[in-house]
Protein backbone atom coordinates (compact mmCIF):
# COMPACT_ATOMS: atom_id res chain seq x y z
CA UNK A 1 0.00 0.00 0.00
CA UNK A 2 1.13 3.52 -0.78
CA UNK A 3 0.31 6.80 0.92
CA UNK A 4 -0.76 9.26 -1.77
CA UNK A 5 -0.50 13.08 -1.62
CA UNK A 6 -3.80 14.81 -0.89
CA UNK A 7 -5.31 17.40 -3.22
CA UNK A 8 -5.87 20.60 -1.22
CA UNK A 9 -8.28 23.50 -1.78
CA UNK A 10 -8.23 25.61 -4.02
CA UNK A 11 -7.09 22.93 -6.52
CA UNK A 12 -9.82 22.82 -9.22
CA UNK A 13 -9.45 19.01 -9.42
CA UNK A 14 -11.66 18.88 -6.30
CA UNK A 15 -14.57 20.18 -8.43
CA UNK A 16 -14.29 17.30 -10.92
CA UNK A 17 -17.28 14.97 -11.22
CA UNK A 18 -15.90 11.45 -10.94
CA UNK A 19 -16.55 8.76 -13.55
CA UNK A 20 -18.08 5.36 -12.74
CA UNK A 21 -15.85 2.34 -12.32
CA UNK A 22 -16.55 -0.22 -15.05
CA UNK A 23 -15.35 -3.31 -13.21
CA UNK A 24 -13.71 -4.26 -9.95
CA UNK A 25 -10.21 -5.48 -10.75
CA UNK A 26 -6.81 -5.58 -9.04
CA UNK A 27 -6.09 -1.95 -9.95
CA UNK A 28 -9.33 -0.77 -8.29
CA UNK A 29 -8.63 -2.86 -5.18
CA UNK A 30 -5.07 -1.49 -4.99
CA UNK A 31 -6.44 2.04 -5.32
CA UNK A 32 -8.87 1.34 -2.46
CA UNK A 33 -6.03 -0.02 -0.30
CA UNK A 34 -3.85 3.03 -1.08
CA UNK A 35 -6.78 5.29 -0.21
CA UNK A 36 -7.29 3.54 3.14
CA UNK A 37 -3.58 3.85 3.92
CA UNK A 38 -3.66 7.55 2.96
CA UNK A 39 -6.82 8.16 5.03
CA UNK A 40 -5.39 6.45 8.14
CA UNK A 41 -2.10 8.34 7.77
CA UNK A 42 -3.78 11.76 7.47
CA UNK A 43 -5.61 10.86 9.88
CA UNK A 44 -9.21 10.92 8.69
CA UNK A 45 -12.41 8.87 8.66
CA UNK A 46 -13.24 9.11 4.95
CA UNK A 47 -11.57 9.71 1.60
CA UNK A 48 -12.83 9.98 -1.97
CA UNK A 49 -10.58 8.98 -4.89
CA UNK A 50 -10.71 12.52 -6.31
CA UNK A 51 -8.94 13.73 -3.15
CA UNK A 52 -5.82 11.93 -4.38
CA UNK A 53 -6.37 13.10 -7.95
CA UNK A 54 -8.21 10.05 -9.29
CA UNK A 55 -11.62 11.02 -10.79
CA UNK A 56 -13.28 7.63 -10.21
CA UNK A 57 -16.42 6.85 -8.17
CA UNK A 58 -14.66 5.21 -5.23
CA UNK A 59 -14.63 6.16 -1.57
CA UNK A 60 -13.39 4.62 1.67
CA UNK A 61 -14.64 5.15 5.21
CA UNK A 62 -13.73 3.97 8.70
CA UNK A 63 -15.74 5.51 11.55
CA UNK A 64 -14.51 3.08 14.25
CA UNK A 65 -13.96 4.83 17.57
CA UNK A 66 -10.39 5.42 18.66
CA UNK A 67 -9.07 2.32 20.40
CA UNK A 68 -11.54 0.00 18.63
CA UNK A 69 -10.42 -2.29 15.80
CA UNK A 70 -10.40 -0.70 12.34
CA UNK A 71 -13.56 -1.17 10.28
CA UNK A 72 -12.53 -0.15 6.75
CA UNK A 73 -15.37 0.12 4.25
CA UNK A 74 -14.97 0.43 0.47
CA UNK A 75 -17.76 1.88 -1.69
CA UNK A 76 -17.50 1.54 -5.48
CA UNK A 77 -20.01 3.52 -7.59
CA UNK A 78 -21.96 4.50 -4.46
CA UNK A 79 -25.33 6.20 -4.58
CA UNK A 80 -27.96 7.23 -2.09
CA UNK A 81 -31.25 5.51 -2.91
CA UNK A 82 -33.17 6.87 0.07
CA UNK A 83 -32.65 9.60 2.66
CA UNK A 84 -34.67 10.59 5.70
CA UNK A 85 -36.62 13.79 6.13
CA UNK A 86 -35.12 13.98 9.61
CA UNK A 87 -31.96 16.09 9.67
CA UNK A 88 -28.82 16.02 11.79
CA UNK A 89 -26.01 18.50 12.25
CA UNK A 90 -22.36 17.48 12.59
CA UNK A 91 -19.21 19.54 12.71
CA UNK A 92 -17.42 18.45 9.55
CA UNK A 93 -13.83 18.75 8.47
CA UNK A 94 -12.07 17.61 5.32
CA UNK A 95 -8.61 16.29 4.54
CA UNK A 96 -8.63 18.56 1.45
CA UNK A 97 -9.47 21.61 3.59
CA UNK A 98 -7.13 21.02 6.56
CA UNK A 99 -7.85 22.51 9.95
CA UNK A 100 -11.18 24.06 8.96
CA UNK A 101 -14.41 22.83 10.54
CA UNK A 102 -18.04 23.90 10.21
CA UNK A 103 -21.45 22.60 11.19
CA UNK A 104 -23.31 21.05 8.26
CA UNK A 105 -26.91 19.85 8.22
CA UNK A 106 -27.67 16.69 6.25
CA UNK A 107 -30.26 13.89 6.24
CA UNK A 108 -29.95 11.88 9.48
CA UNK A 109 -30.18 8.49 7.74
CA UNK A 110 -29.43 7.27 4.25
CA UNK A 111 -29.77 4.03 2.33
CA UNK A 112 -26.73 3.44 0.17
CA UNK A 113 -26.37 1.17 -2.85
CA UNK A 114 -22.80 0.36 -3.92
CA UNK A 115 -20.46 -2.30 -5.23
CA UNK A 116 -18.15 -3.86 -2.66
CA UNK A 117 -14.60 -5.21 -2.89
CA UNK A 118 -16.17 -8.52 -3.91
CA UNK A 119 -17.60 -6.95 -7.10
CA UNK A 120 -21.17 -7.53 -5.91
CA UNK A 121 -23.91 -4.97 -5.28
CA UNK A 122 -24.66 -4.19 -1.63
CA UNK A 123 -27.14 -2.02 0.24
CA UNK A 124 -26.33 -0.32 3.54
CA UNK A 125 -28.52 1.61 5.96
CA UNK A 126 -26.46 4.33 7.63
CA UNK A 127 -27.18 6.79 10.41
CA UNK A 128 -25.19 9.01 12.75
CA UNK A 129 -21.57 9.69 11.91
CA UNK A 130 -21.50 7.02 9.18
CA UNK A 131 -24.42 8.67 7.33
CA UNK A 132 -22.77 12.09 7.56
CA UNK A 133 -19.36 10.79 6.48
CA UNK A 134 -20.86 8.89 3.56
CA UNK A 135 -22.76 11.97 2.31
CA UNK A 136 -19.63 14.11 2.68
CA UNK A 137 -17.52 11.68 0.64
CA UNK A 138 -20.24 11.13 -1.97
CA UNK A 139 -20.38 14.91 -2.43
CA UNK A 140 -16.67 14.78 -3.36
CA UNK A 141 -17.48 12.35 -6.18
CA UNK A 142 -19.90 14.98 -7.53
CA UNK A 143 -17.44 17.88 -7.26
CA UNK A 144 -19.10 19.28 -4.13
CA UNK A 145 -17.21 20.27 -0.97
CA UNK A 146 -18.65 20.51 2.53
CA UNK A 147 -18.07 24.25 2.46
CA UNK A 148 -20.72 24.40 -0.28
CA UNK A 149 -23.23 23.65 2.51
CA UNK A 150 -22.29 26.70 4.62
CA UNK A 151 -23.04 30.38 4.08
CA UNK A 152 -21.60 32.07 1.00
CA UNK A 153 -19.67 34.55 3.15
CA UNK A 154 -17.97 31.82 5.22
CA UNK A 155 -17.27 29.77 2.08
CA UNK A 156 -15.65 32.73 0.31
CA UNK A 157 -13.48 33.44 3.37
CA UNK A 158 -12.25 29.81 3.45
CA UNK A 159 -11.52 29.77 -0.30
CA UNK A 160 -9.67 33.10 -0.03
CA UNK A 161 -7.57 31.80 2.90
CA UNK A 162 -6.59 28.61 1.07
CA UNK A 163 -5.93 30.45 -2.21
CA UNK A 164 -3.59 32.83 -0.38
CA UNK A 165 -1.81 29.91 1.33
CA UNK A 166 -1.40 28.11 -2.01
CA UNK A 167 0.14 31.21 -3.62
CA UNK A 168 2.55 31.56 -0.70
CA UNK A 169 3.85 28.01 -1.33
CA UNK A 170 4.70 28.72 -4.98
Q: Could you explain how this protein is built, in words?
A:
Removes the formyl group from the N-terminal Met of newly synthesized proteins. Requires at least a dipeptide for an efficient rate of reaction. N-terminal L-methionine is a prerequisite for activity but the enzyme has broad specificity at other positions. It catalyses: N-terminal N-formyl-L-methionyl-[peptide] + H2O = N-terminal L-methionyl-[peptide] + formate. Keywords: Hydrolase, Iron, Metal-binding, Protein biosynthesis. This is Peptide deformylase. It is a single chain. With 170 residues, the protein is α+β, with helices and mostly antiparallel strands. The protein is 28% helix and 30% strand. The protein has a single domain (12-169), classed as Peptide deformylase (Peptide Deformylase, Alpha-Beta Complex), CATH 3.90.45. The protein has helices spanning 26-41, 128-141, 152-169; strands at 46-48, 58-61, 73-83, 87-94, 97-107, 109-115, 121-127. It has a five-stranded antiparallel β-sheet, sandwiched between helices. A two-stranded antiparallel sheet has the order 4-5. The protein is globular. The two termini are 30 Å apart.
Tell me the layout of helices and strands.
Layout: H1 26-41, E1 46-48, E2 58-61, E3 73-83, E4 87-94, E5 97-107, E6 109-115, E7 121-127, H2 128-141, H3 152-169
Antiparallel strand pairs: 1-2, 2-3, 3-6, 4-5, 6-7
Amino acid sequence: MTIKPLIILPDPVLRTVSAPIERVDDAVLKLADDMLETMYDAPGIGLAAIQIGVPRRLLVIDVAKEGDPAQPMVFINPEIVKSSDERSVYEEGCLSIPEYYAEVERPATVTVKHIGRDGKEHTLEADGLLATCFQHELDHLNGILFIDHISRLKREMVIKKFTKAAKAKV
